[in-house]
Each structure stands twice: as structure tokens, then as C-alpha cells.
Design a protein that fits this description.
- This protein is an alpha+beta fold.
- It has 17 helices and 39 strands.
- It has an 8-stranded mixed sheet with strand order 32-33-35-34-36-37-38-39, sandwiched between helices. Strands 5, 6, 7, 8 and 9 form a 5-stranded antiparallel sheet that branches.
- Strand 12 (249-254) and strand 13 form a beta hairpin.
- The radius of gyration is 25 Å and the shape is globular.
- The termini are far apart.
Length: 736
């Protein structure tokens, strides 16, 4: 069982991949005024906005505040006008139509590896293609999955369901009750928003349960206690949400009773990010943990002991999980446990019962070094499997649990790309035949994804699935380089070279970055980049700047709040190094980033506009004066600071793009993209920045998809269209 703080952060960061197939947002939240048609998240954000104090009221009036009205007719008329102008320009380019066709072919490719999650005897998958645009929630057995063409059984057809109910449903996940895995709490999103409808579903009859558990649209958190009881955090009415628009209250709800009669079992405070609950039903080691996420990185965690909640004595910023009788503690700051002191980034273990009694006897499973960090871990019945980053290349270790602790073995795995591990063990199944089996994935920039069935017994593994090459990589190469930032810090970056490219300063080059929320940018294989960029002569550069998690928590923490500018300094340093090494020149250099990465490229092009000739700014944060009042923005103050605090606004104001773009500045022609249905990062960030720049006389392009949520698109056709616009823009700006 993973800890609540880990689960909460994953939910807040969850979500979407950008055109580059990398994390768009690692934030999580939404905004004010008309936000979305969802629940009272809007009311919560509006109340936060009204409380936004004297500093905000003293600020100059915002002439484009009307664009915060998400569904307002005036705002939507502006959106339609900008969309029409941008699409007219970009769809007329000769590369648009063939690029869109190629991208759709990539997105709908039949040899995509179906990502699966085990539930009892079944492996479940959500599949989208040209015939199933919103997707099939389907299942198969491991025996079938091993086949080249498995037989899949459809459980829910999202397209058919949406047509029948006249809703634009997008899949939002399911909580399924083991060990029979029949009862499901299915989440459905309208248009891809974070807010979802929850409905109970029977996986045997394949029907929604009449008079079953049902929740209206909200940013809900649900988990099963037993077949007739669930824990639920949702919009219960005024005062039940945090300032960030997430649940503040968790209730226990019995089947057959009104939601209004559900019993409150846990509460946070309005200033918290969210509350959450996690139920571990491992026989003999059942645990229920509640958590208050007091900010994005810190939480207070409580174990339910009978009818009492007992605070788990761990650092607020640590992640906690359990392997039966063992507690696992992943640190984000240095920690003193008895006579022992452990560094930030370490993974510790100890006897759970003894630790919960107050005996701090812990030992280290993993200790970081200046180049090694823990990217994640999973557990089988008797092992902890570690995914380690060594200079941003993946390595695996396994630790076997024994009577005297754990013993280590390094796993021989493909290198030096990105690895992924996922345990297949189900502790609810007696004598589980997959107790020591796991799935292993490998990819790098030029190697298609492979999926293996592995065992902790040895390094022999079965190749389950492998993608065909989506582009001709002959003559291409990828390498890692280092730039030196303003303060002397070495910043790694990857360069993917197309065939025949030389360091002559003329290469169309796209620099991608994120730099926030401890998210690492690891190598990925992208058929979209391969066909639309590499094969046409484009160079891709991925910058591993501070603010990310490539070198552990310290790499992230060195670029938050007052030091956020370091992320932008690192990104600029990489850009300058690309020019100095003659990989490209400013005329041919573009930058791309989404969400927090949208803020990155926004801050960078306003600070150093002469370095770039293209900027793809996706679902961005840009108005940092008001980000905390817009949708889930209040949850990100641990990353950026509080603009209502004059001392913190002093450093935020220096980089906030909306406050720093100037009428007399000479900026590259920017492409802003966002989604009307993004209820995490308010579309007004992109809208207002574009409107302000247009009023100042700057040339730009703007495209807002009506659906898609924070990912910007709800299905593959929308994704192909959006990405084709972006690539057409890049070739327009950066081509030789």
C-alpha cells in the first residue's frame, strides 16, 4: 500500500502527456469565475479570489480579467476568433495535412503496447483508436496477453455509452474491490476535465448498478471499505472543499443510505490542498490511512486504530508505504531516527508495529549519491524493486525481505534509457501465482518501447510486447551533454540528432523542458517526433533543469519559491550552450513546455527573447499574480510562493510572464495552446497573455481546444490536429 501523501501527490500530478509524450503538468488544480460546469470548485476558487487581500487590490486593474469567465460568451467569441485566425494560417501550410495524417497513424497504431493493470485473474486496459475514439475499457488474461493478438473482452465502450447518454464521456479510472473484482467505482469525465462523475459498475453483468453508489460531477476521492461501504471525499456543499477545490472532508457511506447521511470520519482545513484515504486490505495487515495534504509536498498522516486516529510519526514531507509487517519510508529531507541520521532521498525500512509504537529503528535500502536518485519503487510479495536514476539513466535493484532484514541484488536490465517496473502481485489472492512476477518496460529516444514479464528469481525475462519502429532511425543518434548555469551548476541535457545533421549552426532545434514538482524528464520514444521532426531534419533537446527530480529532492528543492529563477537560468544556459556548440542558432531555435513547463518557456522568452525564434506554450501558468486564485492554483504555493505575501510577490513578480511582457519588447512569434475544459490550469492564463501581447502589438498564434482537459485533447483525432498545428508552426518559424 502506498501512503496517502504519495497517492495524493500522484493524483494531483496525474494526468496528461504533451505532444512530446512528457508530463504537461505536474501541478494540479484549477481557477475562478466561471471555471467549469463542475460543482462548487468554482465557488471555492472564487471565495479564495475574494479573500485575496490588500496586495491584490492594490495592483493595477487587469484589463483582460473578463477572459477568466471560462464559458462566458464574450470570452468564447474571442477564443473562436483567435482559433479561426491561427488555424487558417497553420492548416494552409504544406506540411500540415500530411503531418496530421502521419500523427493520427502513429496515435492509432495497432502495435501500441496496451498498458495493463492487474485485477485478480484479469489484465485491464483502456484502448483508443480510429474506431473507438473515447476508448474501450477492456480486459484479457495473462495467457491471452502473451499472444501476438490477444482476445480482449470489452467491459465498457465509452463511445457507445456517450452516444446513448448524450455525453462527451472521457475515461477517468476505476476503483475495483478485490478479491473478486466485481464491484467498480467508475469515474467519467465530461470532455477530459479533472472533475468526474462516479458511478458503481458491475464487471460481471457489465452494467451500472441500479441504486448503487453514485456521485455527481466533482473532484472526488473514493475507496472501498467493503462491499457495502465506501469512503468518499467530494463536494458535500459549502465548506466541504479546500481553497484548491479538492475534498476537505471524508465520510463513510453505507449502501442504501442517502449521501447526506454519510458519517464524517476525517476532516482537513480549508487551506489544505486536499484530504485523502487509502485502504490496505492485505489479510492480517489491514490498515486504513487518512491524510491531510497541508501543501503540495507535506502531509499529516493518520492510522485508523479502532475508532481512533493515531498520527503516524514521520516527517511531513516523507512518503510512507507498507509491505505486510514492514514500513517503508522515502525521505524528501534529512531525518534523524534515534542515533542514525539519513539523507534526503533515502529509502528506509523498519518493523511497522515497532515503529508505530514509537521505536525508531530504521535501516536504509537506498542512499542517494550526487548522481544517483530513487525514481520510484514497487513491491512483490517478498521483494522491494527499486528504479534508480544514474545520471538520468535507469537502473534496477531488488531487495529480498528475510528474517534479518533485506539483501540486495542488482538486476541486469537494458541500459541507458528509461525503465519502468510494475508489480503483478495481488496480496488479496491466496497463494498468488504471480506473487514474484513484475512487468518491466524499456525505451530510449531511438528505441521503441519493449515490455517484459520478469521474475525476482533471476534475470531471465519473457518479451511480451515490442513496438515496431515508427520512423527510420538509421543514422540518427542521441547523446547527453552538460551546460553550465549562471551559478556554476552543471545541467545535463539530451540531444537527439537526425540523420546527416552537423554542428554548423543551421539545425532547426526544439528545446523541451519542465523543471518543477520533482518531475524527471527521462528518455522517451516518440513516433510523432520521429516522423514530424527528426525525419525532416529537426534536432530535439531535452533539458534536465533544476526543479525536476533527476538528482533527487535536493535538485528540486534548489529551485522553488525564492529560487525558482534557477530553473529559468538553467534552461537559458542550455539554450546558450546549443548556440555556442553550433548545434543551432537563435534563428533556428524554438522552445516548448506545458503546464509548469508553459511557465518555464513563458518566463524564458520574456527574459531572453533574442535567443529564440519559436515558443510553443502549452496549457501554461502565466499570470503568477493570480495563479493561486484560479482553479487548483492554491495547491501550488509550496512550489511558487504566495503572491499575496509582499515578500514572496517580490521574487515572483520578477519572472511572472504576464507582468513582465513589454510593449516595446521584440519577442518571437509565440503559439499558445490550451483547453476550455482544463479545470486544473485555468485557460485564462493563456487567454490573457495572448490578449495582452496582441494589445501591445506583438504577433502571435493562439489555439484553444474546447475539450481535452489539462491534456489539451480528448481523443486521438484532437491530439493529431493539435500536434500538427504545433509542428506546422515550428517548421514555419525554424525551417532553413
Amino acid at each position: 500500500m502506498t501512503s496517502d501523501v504519495s497517492a495524493t501527490r500522484r493524483r494531483l500530478l496525474a494526468g496528461t502527456l504533451g505532444a512530446a509524450a512528457t508530463p504537461l503538468l505536474t501541478l494540479s488544480a484549477p481557477s475562478a469565475m466561471s471555471q467549469t460546469p463542475a460543482s462548487s470548485a468554482a465557488a471555492s476558487a472564487a471565495s479564495a479570489a475574494s479573500a485575496a487581500s490588500a496586495a491584490a487590490s492594490a495592483a493595477p486593474a487587469d484589463p483582460f480579467a473578463w477572459l477568466e469567465d471560462v464559458q462566458g460568451e464574450r470570452a468564447l467569441a474571442w477564443v473562436r476568433e483567435r482559433n479561426a485566425a491561427s488555424q487558417k494560417e497553420l492548416t494552409a501550410r504544406p506540411e500540415f495535412a500530411p503531418t496530421r495524417s502521419q500523427l493520427l497513424e502513429v496515435l492509432n497504431a495497432k502495435d501500441r503496447i496496451p498498458a495493463v493493470s492487474r485485477r485478480g485473474d484479469w489484465l485491464y486496459n483502456l484502448w483508443q483508436d480510429e474506431h473507438h475514439k473515447r476508448g474501450l475499457w477492456r480486459r484479457t488474461t495473462l495467457a491471452e496477453y502473451r499472444k501476438a493478438e490477444p482476445a480482449w473482452e470489452t467491459v465498457i465502450d465509452l463511445d457507445a455509452l456517450g452516444a446513448t447518454e448524450k455525453e462527451n464521456w472521457v475515461w477517468g479510472g476505476a476503483a475495483v474491490l478485490g478479491p473478486d473484482y466485481r464491484r467498480c467505482l467508475v469515474s467519467l469525465s465530461r470532455g477530459g476535465a479533472d472533475a468526474k462523475v462516479v458511478r458503481e459498475f458491475d464487471a460481471v453483468t457489465k452494467q451500472f448498478v441500479k441504486d448503487g453508489f453514485t456521485l455527481p460531477e466533482a473532484k472526488s476521492d473514493v475507496d472501498w471499505l467493503d462491499g457495502d461501504t465506501i469512503y468518499v471525499g467530494t463536494d458535500f456543499g459549502p465548506g466541504s472543499l479546500t481553497d484548491s477545490g479538492y475534498p476537505r472532508v471524508i465520510k463513510r457511506w453505507k449502501r442504501g443510505t442517502p449521501l447526506a447521511d454519510a458519517v464524517t470520519v476525517f476532516e482537513g482545513e480549508s487551506k489544505d490542498v486536499a484530504v485523502s484515504v487509502s485502504v490496505d486490505r492485505t489479510p492480517g495487515f489491514e490498515r486504513i490511512v487518512f491524510a491531510r495534504a497541508i501543501d503540495f509536498y507535506n502531509s499529516h498522516q493518520f492510522l485508523l486504530n479502532g475508532d481512533k486516529l493515531v498520527r503516524i510519526d514521520v516527517p511531513d514531507d516523507a512518503s510512507v508505504s507498507f509491505l505486510r509487517d514492514t514500513i517503508l519510508l522515502h525521505l524528501r529531507s534529512d531525518f534523524q531516527a534515534g542515533a542514525d541520521r539519513f539523507p534526503s532521498g533515502a529509502l528506509l525500512y523498519g518493523d511497522a508495529a515497532a515503529y508505530l509504537r514509537g521505536e525508531r529503528k530504521l535501516r536504509a535500502l537506498f542512499t542517494p549519491t550526487p548522481t544517483r536518485s530513487l525514481a520510484g519503487y514497487t513491491t512483490t510479495r517478498d521483494h522491494v524493486l527499486l528504479n534508480v536514476l544514474d545520471n538520468v539513466a535507469g537502473k534496477l535493484e531488488q531487495w529480498k525481505k528475510g528474517a534479518d532484514g533485506f539483501t540486495r541484488r542488482e538486476i541486469a536490465a537494458p541500459f541507458p534509457g528509461a525503465l519502468g517496473i510494475s508489480s503483478l502481485h495481488d496480496p488479496l489472492i491466496k497463494n498468488d501465482p504471480l506473487a514474484e512476477r513484475y512487468l518491466l518496460t524499456y525505451t530510449d529516444f531511438l528505441t521503441p518501447d519493449s515490455l517484459y514479464l520478469a521474475s525476482t528469481a533471476n534475470d531471465q525475462r519473457e518479451l511480451l510486447k515490442a513496438r515496431n519502429g515508427l520512423f527510420d532511425a538509421k543514422g540518427m543518434r542521441a547523446e547527453q551533454r552538460f551546460a553550465t548555469s549562471k551559478d556554476g551548476t552543471r545541467v545535463p541535457y539530451f540531444v537527439v540528432w537526425p540523420q546527416g545533421a552537423k554542428a554548423d549552426g543551421s539545425n532547426p532545434t526544439l528545446l523541451y523542458g519542465y523543471g518543477g514538482f520533482e518531475i524527471s524528464l527521462k528518455p522517451w520514444y516518440s513516433g510523432s517526433f520521429g516522423r514530424a521532426w527528426y525525419q525532416r531534419g529537426g534536432v530535439l533537446v531535452v533539458a534536465n533543469i533544476r526543479g525536476g527530480g533527476e538528482f533527487g529532492p535536493a535538485w528540486h528543492q534548489s529551485a522553488v519559491k525564492a529560487n525558482k529563477q534557477r530553473s529559468y537560468d538553467d534552461f537559458i544556459a542550455v539554450a546558450e550552450d546549443l548556440v555556442a556548440q553550433k548545434i543551432t542558432a537563435p534563428r533556428h531555435l524554438g522552445i516548448m513546455g506545458g503546464s509548469n513547463g508553459g511557465l518555464l518557456v513563458g518566463a524564458t522568452f520574456t527574459q531572453r527573447p533574442e535567443l529564440f525564434n519559436a515558443v510553443v506554450c502549452q496549457v501554461p501558468l502565466l499570470d503568477m499574480r493570480r495563479f493561486h486564485t484560479l482553479l487548483a492554483g492554491a495547491s501550488w504555493m509550496a512550489e511558487y510562493g504566495n503572491p499575496d505575501d509582499p515578500a514572496e510577490w517580490a521574487f515572483i513578480s520578477k519572472y511572472s510572464p504576464y507582468q513582465n511582457v513589454r510593449k516595446g519588447g521584440k519577442y518571437p512569434k509565440v503559439l499558445f495552446t490550451t483547453s476550455t475544459r482544463d479545470d486544473r490550469v485555468h485557460p485564462a492564463h493563456a487567454r490573457k497573455m495572448a490578449a495582452l501581447m496582441l494589445s501591445q502589438g506583438h504577433e502571435l498564434l493562439y489555439y484553444e481546444n474546447i475539450e481535452g482537459g489539462h491534456g489539451g485533447a480528448a481523443d486521438n483525432e484532437q491530439r493529431a490536429h493539435l500536434q500538427a498545428l504545433e509542428y506546422s508552426y515550428l517548421w514555419q518559424q525554424l525551417g532553413r
